[in-house]
Amino acid sequence: MKSSIVAPLSALASGAIFGVGVTVAGLGDPSSIVGALDVGGEWDPSLWLATAAAITFSAIGLVLATHRPRAWIGTPIELPRRRDVSARLVVRSVVLGVGWGLTGFSPSSALVAIGTGNLEALLFTGAMLIAMLVARTVDARFSRTTILPVS
Amino acid sequence: MTFACAPFAPWNAVSGGALIGLATSLLLLAIGRATNVSAIVEGLLDADRVGGRSWRVAFIVGLLIGPSLASLFVPMHAAMASATRLEVVIGGALVGVGAHYASGCTTGHGIYGLARSSPRSFVAASLCSLAALLTVFVLRHALGSAS
User: In the structure, what pLDDT confidence band is assigned to residue B82 with cuts at 50, 70 and 90?
Assistant: First the structure.
């Protein structure tokens, strides 16, 4: 098969498995995320259990990938190479965490929740996209650093 | 559709997490891409990225149909709103600014970066989680508003 078909089909399968995983783990429900973050209340550890399992199984794919130079479609395997810790990273991570704790949605869990007809998730994703657009415009106008393409 | 997810059970959490890990492995081995959901979404905003757009759309469509597929296998219950609509909009904007340029995301750093044992991702995931824990604590306990 042509890579032009294999790539979107693989991505569709990956997204669907990811979406099933988020749903089965209960992470599409924002109250489950907030419950996992609420150490002072009725603590729900599902998020942390799911994350540990996800890290483990992601690591298996990474180990397999290190032994092959190219993906199935023939393109090079592109892994993020940045390992540095910048002030910008620190600030953005904290800002992201506040938004995550406030709503119980992450970019992925919100998309999965939209698939259940969750209106809050749609609002969240709309606000996220608008904020990304604004941040990109501000960065492009006021920053001297070159804009790094999204991997 | 009002269902959102399966009720909490440790086995569900672990098997769901394993599926998430399988999904990131599939994306990496099949098309050579790291799974960073916020970056996949933000990549759609790049006008000059036509060639790299179809797989992003396909991945997002997959996420959207995930709950319907899952409902074939596991019992579902309705999601409970944990925030007001205003909080949802503010929170979405904060996540958008925080995740922009793939600088941080629960999936990209929290799952994938930690699987790569990247120090950058360790810092990002830890700070993100601490900020979220603190936010929930302040909103639920310090301010006393059980939302």
Answer: confident
| Torsional class of A102: left (φ above 0), alpha (ψ -120 to 50), beta (otherwise) | alpha
Is A132 in Cβ contact with B135 (below 8 Å)?
Answer: no
Residues of B in contact with A101 (CB under 8 A): 131-136, 139
ipTM of predicted assembly, 2 dp: 0.90
The Cα–Cα gap between B90 and B5 comes to 24
> What is d(CA B3, CA A131) in angstroms, rounded to the nearest whole number?
28
The residue type found at A98 is V
pLDDT, tens only, A29-53: 898 888 888 888 877 888 899 999 9
DSSP states of B8-53: P-HHHHHHHHHHHHHHHHHHHHHH-B---HHHHHHHTT-TT-GGGT
CA dihedral of A24, B117, B91, A121, whole degrees rounded to 10:
-30
Record the tokens describing residue A134, joined without a space: 């604004």
CA distances to A47, A68, A90, B119 from B129, in Å? 11, 33, 12, 15
Q: Is the pLDDT of residue A87 over 50?
A: yes
